[in-house]
Amino acid sequence: MQLSMWTYPWDIQDLGLETVERDIVQRAGLNMISLATSYHAGRFLQPRSPRRKAYFPEDGTIYFKPSAARWADLAIQPKVADVISEGGDVLGQLVRRREQGGPGVSCWTVCLHNTRLGMLHPEAVTRNAFGDPNYYNLCPSHPDARAYVRALVADISHGYKPDRIELESPSFMGFAHEYHHEKDGVGLTPEEDFLLSLCFCPSCVDRAAKAGVNAEPARALVRQWIVETCERAVPERRFPSFPASGLEVFGPWPELHAYLVWRFEPVTSLIAELREVAHPVTKVLIIDLKEGWLGGCDLAAVGKVCDGAILCAYDMQAEDVASLVTDGRAALGAGKFLGTGYRLFYPEMAG
User: Fold this and answer.
1) How would you write 203-247 as a 3-class SS string?
2) Mean pLDDT over residues 179-198, rounded?
């Protein structure tokens, strides 16, 4: 059984590799470290750090030493975080310790959630039905975004040969809770948040057209519904059963439904490409949510093109976790890796 902990490189630098390894193996009883190798911005309380009690990582940077040859001529280029440039290659240290009998190494890799790169490359981000950019989300349909993530996975896996790579956000992201200090003021319903999350950027429209799906009627309908939302005095559910009812709630609008079904294709094909470019010794997993289909992730389809999934069991009761695992296993099949991810936050995990 693989038992791992999501870990940040600055924590290892602050505490020391020997201390972290001892705590991971002896205190927590784990056998693997899942190190953030690309990550977004945040604000982190550092309760155990002897250096500081708050840390703000650079936005949209990588935490390993890239190979220049793999990035030659790519439009979207990575930036190495200062803590790695100045403090050393933590991933390399972990891999060397693994070869000496230390814990396994997994690379927790944020793919398309990158505001820094989105601001630098607005042509490559998702755009809603009104054409407004979501700077935090590179689009899985855009060729440059896809090339960036392929290079990221290839560079990590061939350069370091970790036991596995965990893909976070290789998909479309939601409208809510992806940026700082979000304000909507009208009380968006779950279906309205989903509609605002739908991407109609030129890359999506063109890719859908090549698959025989016309995005324009879907875009027009989504625009109409969002305009109606913005003109209401108080929130009103259009689809009270959403998201539990899934995409079938949109069945009466066949052109929109067809576009939503197509939306799985760019995500599934991107993950297939990532498995293809990764080193054979490195397992490629996705990190997904219970309702990952909202972001275009079809777990059954993805399970056919990668090595498995880690399903986030955030803020769930035991019976809900059991259902999550049962459904995940049914979707992935018997031969694929299936893990669950937990946030060890109080009071979510009180004991």
Assistant:
1) HHHHHHHHCCCCHHHHHHHHHHHHHHHHHCCCCCCCCCCCCCCHH
2) 89
